[in-house]
Amino acid sequence: MTRRPPRPRERGIPEATVARLPLYLRALQALDERGTPTVSSEELASVAGVNSAKLRKDLSHLGSYGTRGVGYDVEYLIYQISRELGLTQDWSVAIVGVGNLGRALANYGGFGTRGFRIAALLDADPAVVGDAVAGLRVGHIDSLEEVVAREHVSIGVIATPAAAAQGVCDRFVGAGVTSVLNFAPVVLNVPDGVDVRKVDLSIELQILAFHEQRKADGRGGPEWIEALEA
């Protein structure tokens, strides 16, 4: 049976807080690699790129792990955030679309250390099927349902052209996958109970261009940025 990643917001954690937890985790892991045993909220907030009041409020949703005058135990907070995000177990991932983006995702070494196992690569192009990528043989898209069942796929990644994305998503959902990461430049329609996260690099660039324009116009001061990000 396909496992479903946990949904922290079901426990009353705001979506904006959930989105920042990976930032805190990354900052804590960097501190841990440097041998830092404890960290104050101000120091952690600075490393994570948020203000300390927001950080303390976010972490309060997880419980009370800080000690006044001492700060947070880095290793323990790493564990608590990892547990909340469902990263204390491995999640099986299938990537559909093995073009340049799909290959780059498959070859990214950071997934394995963060609880994600790339279990399968699938494509519809006969010229791509059979290629060896990141130690895996690219399978044909026709085997998607079989692969999901065999590898217990929890998360489907769509890196196809826009025209193919909805069909791939429908097949993932039909196979029991309820968490989808979409890199295709299209909005996917999914039934209730299915979570879709969309990654659109062009939108991110446009947002950065917006910030640059604001700064050029003299409207990009810290107070304005804080208001925008609240």
UniProtKB/TrEMBL annotation:
GO terms for biological process: negative regulation of DNA-templated transcription; response to redox state. Residues 86-187 form the CoA-binding domain. InterPro entries: CoA-bd (IPR003781), NAD(P)-bd_dom_sf (IPR036291), Rex_actinobacterial-type (IPR058236), Rex_DNA-bd_C_dom (IPR009718), Tscrpt_rep_Rex (IPR022876), WH-like_DNA-bd_sf (IPR036388), WH_DNA-bd_sf (IPR036390). GO terms for molecular function: DNA binding; DNA-binding transcription factor activity. Its main location: cytoplasm. NAD(+) binds at residues 97-102. Keywords: Cytoplasm, DNA-binding, NAD, Repressor, Transcription, Transcription regulation. GO terms for cellular component: cytoplasm. Gene3D superfamilies: NAD(P)-binding Rossmann-like Domain (3.40.50.720), Winged helix-like DNA-binding domain superfamily/Winged helix DNA-binding domain (1.10.10.10). SUPFAM superfamilies: NAD(P)-binding Rossmann-fold domains (SSF51735), Winged helix' DNA-binding domain (SSF46785). Belongs to the transcriptional regulatory Rex family. Homodimer. HAMAP family: Rex. Modulates transcription in response to changes in cellular NADH/NAD(+) redox state. This is Redox-sensing transcriptional repressor Rex. It comes from Marinactinospora thermotolerans DSM 45154. The gene is rex.
